[in-house]
Amino acid sequence: MNKEDIENYSAANKKIGAVMVVGGGIAGIQASLDLANSGYYVYLVEKSPSIGGVMPQLDKTFPTNDCSMCILSPKLVECGRHFNIEILTNTQVEEVLGEAGNLEVSLIRSPRFVDEDKCVGCGVCAEKCPVKVKDKFNEGLGERKAIYIQYPQAIPLVYQIDKDHCRYFIKGKCRICEKLCKNEAVNFEDTEKRFTLKVGSIILAPGFELFDPQLKGEYGYGVYDNVVTSKQFERILSASGPSMGHLERPGDKKEPKKIGFIQCVGSRDLQAGKGYCSSVCCMYAIKEAVVAKEHSGEVEPTIFFMDIRAHGKGFDDYYKRAEEEYGVRFIRCMVSKIVEMPRTKNLRVTYINEEGKPVEEEFDMMVLSGGLTPSEDARALGERLEIRLNQYGFCETSQFSPLSTSRAGIFVSGVFQGPKDIPETVAQASGSVACASGLLSESRGSMVKGKEYPLETEVKDISPRIGVFVCHCGINIGGVIDVPQVKGYAESLRDVVYAEEGLYVCSQDFQELMKKAISEHNLNRVVVASCSPRTHEPLFQETLRETGLNKYLFEMANIRDQCSWVHMRQKEDATKKAKALVRMAVENARLIQPLDELSLEIKDKALVIGGGLSGMTAALSLADQGYEVYLVEKEAKLGGVLHDVYYTLEGDDVQSHLREIIERVEANPSIHIFKDTMVVDFSGYKGNFEIGLMVGPGMFYRKLEHGIVIVATGGEEYKPVGEYMYGEDELVMTQLELEKRIANGAPELSHIDSIVMIQCVGSRTEERPYCSRVCCSEAVKNSLKLKELNPNMNICILYRDIRSYGLMEDYYTLARKKGVKFIRYDLNSKPGVTVEDGALKVNIKDPALGEDLSLSPDLIVLSSAIIPKENDELATLLKVPRTQEGFFLEAHMKLRPVDFATDGIYVCGLAHSPKLISECISQAYAASARASTILSQERIHVGGVVATVNGDLCAACLTCVRVCPYDVPVINEEGFAEINMAKCQGCGSCASECPAKAIELQHFRDEQILAKCNALLEEAV
């Protein structure tokens, strides 16, 4: 979209159908993709030479230990090849004028000195460049040349000249890169460019930087070689890092045995001006300790911490496994200093142990877990855009509008809004898209262009010509499996005419290599041996489609999940198994055929199940984007658990907001509300769903058609009957019950002298191993309210770990200043509650003092778990998975936090996991944005992998009708089974059960399955 087009459109329409995303990290990438897939043109502005942000620097992600680059690469490539995303690297926003819907942005683009249109990323220039400098991407642990790319999978894959180190710019001579470049891409006359763009809205996602540990001189960073930052340790662990994944310490390249991790370096530190918690440091330290242990079984990791803040979904279980299965040692203390031993370069660490005794211990290497802080560039950006920042430099938002900045039309996501992990960042990115889309819905589709594919190559009567591409996946595969040997073996297999290996097969440069190989070698089948088809198959299928091949002429061999990960200690056998998996994939590829898909219209209506805060927020967001919404609530009133919450930690009036949002929902003509209603049946596929409802109070049946589903069934407070005398003594209550009394002004509370609060009641137990996330802040919130009523009240909170993550840490600090006492307890010595002489007694062992304490409170308050509302029948109807605790399970924990694996169905709020009000709102917006990527399309393609019926063999026995979980097969007028390819989900149940073998599942036909089985039984060459 050129400037003239934009100006012409702007003149005729007030609101512009383009959005600028500032920041090319995972938040910016997700926001850009959601916007572009929802009908908006996107300018993705990134100040560095390539997009990706911090994620490419990470080795693995917790709690699944997925390779960070593996899960990010498909999004990088999709972003780089998207027709409606214009990536502007080396670019910064200088000024924004105008009003929401019509903003004029002034930008400055720094010179790259390499022409993006001419550079092919061959690397000859860097190979011959004589200048070496410290590599910032590898955190100074390695070197790069003065002409460089940031990392191997960089988007765009274009080299850049570092003007500060280039000999030509310093001394006026060299220019060898210019002489060697056959494409004449090097341009030393490149200059800074200033230009303006007009957009309807802006999303800020400028990311973060780590706290500079040199400001904590007691740890010796920058003085002692073997004291490193957490990000440096990530690069050491990474296969693409300076040591190629070999675990070594920087000082002398020796493999360390004892590695220590120090938490809260630049977090929870008032002296450093960082009073907040950075939210992720505990978990990434645990991850790094676990991964280090996987690299070398001899490693002995120790984590020094104050509180382990494993407050995310699946985090506590990961923490527990790290301790019990990997032998990670956890010591609750703050390290006072580190001193290097002159001869060995080992590090002597001094700390006070939990018994209060001074200890000195020697480590080979120390890792400083640095806190997250807004970069100076991000702060300056906020000031230039005239948006409010908080005392720490994060973008200031409210609890009820967590994605809106103080300036209309400008939204925020990611760490710039406050410290957070990747799933919350991704959810906020999608959520900010919903906010922008609600503002610009009338301009959707006005500035986008469609993608055209080449005509499909006819392969029906042509002999198979198979190409095999084997991925090292860093060391995820290459560290266990002999990839060159597997590649060589693939070349020997029948009908394989080309084989290649690559460090990351999913990277953009390898996709181009793959397309070139398909063209040059006339390949008509492609096999990729790498990781999971669940995350990567669509990427490779798109590559095939761009070359003119039908996307179903593709097969994957999962040599990561099914081989290297499960056989990491059996390298020789793992290589043999990888060969077998490739052999099976090739035999299957020989028989696969192109498949057709059906183009159908989309029903552009949305269904939201659950009328609590998340459901109502999602419904309003969808309505603002121009869609009709059905909102189904099984209770007689909207609001859910929010009826029991009266104020936030920050002091916001929750009931006032609840009344306002209910009024907005009920007054919105695009939202059709069904209260006292049950879901009784469900069928269909993305874009075309049908749901059956029993609508109260008369309980009449109603069927609705819609294109997407958002599940927001909510959660509730666990009632701990039988624990700590709850239900037996009226002076024992839950936090929500206490909150109601405080809000209603119960006069007896101001006269109470002593209260004991007990944390983790029903959470972090064997029955519910998860953290309920909000309980600590709830206890702090109510304690501060009680202190307002009676400053002399004696309040004691019994806890295991205080998890006041993010900016909530300030309130934890305030509570301590107000005199609230915090006493820790262990799970194996939980507090005991008794009644003695008619008075409550709480007995607890204080691990810090090593003594038994007896408390005599007037009131006991239990911080109870958040549990999901009853949802097993709904999960069965929708055919969506749940965790063992009953929360709904998303498609991918990190990068698809609100999607189900079933396309077109999304989840948000407490139905997903425990979370704060602001997090529920962000996730609700995210679900509506993801839903819009479907609803905004006119048509959808379905079919492909579907079951087909041979009517001559069908006996109409009804077996398929009974076994199909989606109720698709019917007996037609001709007397045999018929399967609607638009509704078929390709599960194969009917094909496997049909006694006459009249049903065949396309892409998984019997002859293909038998060929794979026979290949498995063949001896390896």
Short description:
The chain is α/β, with parallel strands linked by helices and about 1000 residues long. The protein has 27 helices and 52 strands.
Rg measurement, Å: 30 Å
Average per-residue pLDDT, rounded, comes to: 93
Strand content: 15-25%
Task: Let me know the largest β-sheet.
Answer: 5 strands, parallel
Shape: globular
Main features:
1021 residues; 24% strand; 52 strands; five-stranded parallel beta sheet; 27 helices; alpha/beta; 28% helix
Please write out the topology:
Blueprint: H1 3-12, E1 18-22, H2 26-36, E2 41-45, E3 60-61, E4 66-67, H3 68-81, E5 85-88, E6 91-99, E7 102-109, H4 124-128, E8 132-134, E9 143-145, E10 147-148, E11 160-161, H5 167-171, H6 176-180, E12 193-199, E13 201-204, E14 209-210, E15 227-229, H7 230-237, E16 258-265, H8 281-295, E17 300-305, H9 315-324, E18 329-332, E19 335-340, E20 347-352, E21 358-363, E22 365-370, E23 372-373, H10 376-384, E24 410-412, H11 422-440, E25 466-471, H12 475-478, H13 483-491, E26 496-502, H14 508-520, E27 525-530, H15 533-547, E28 554-558, H16 560-564, H17 571-591, E29 597-601, E30 605-609, H18 613-624, E31 628-632, H19 654-667, E32 671-674, E33 677-685, E34 688-695, E35 700-706, E36 708-711, E37 715-717, E38 732-734, H20 735-743, E39 754-761, H21 775-789, E40 794-799, H22 809-817, E41 821-824, E42 832-836, E43 839-846, E44 851-855, E45 859-864, E46 866-868, H23 872-878, E47 905-907, H24 917-935, E48 939-943, E49 947-949, H25 959-963, E50 970-971, E51 977-978, H26 989-993, E52 999-1001, H27 1006-1017
Parallel strand pairs: 1-2, 1-13, 2-5, 13-24, 15-22, 16-17, 16-22, 17-18, 25-26, 25-27, 27-28, 30-31, 30-36, 31-32, 36-47, 38-45, 39-40, 39-45, 40-41
Antiparallel strand pairs: 3-4, 6-7, 7-12, 8-9, 10-11, 14-23, 19-20, 20-21, 29-48, 33-34, 34-35, 37-46, 42-43, 43-44, 49-52, 50-51
Helix pairs in contact: 2-3, 2-11, 7-8, 8-9, 11-18, 11-24, 13-17, 14-15, 17-27, 18-19, 18-24, 20-21, 21-22
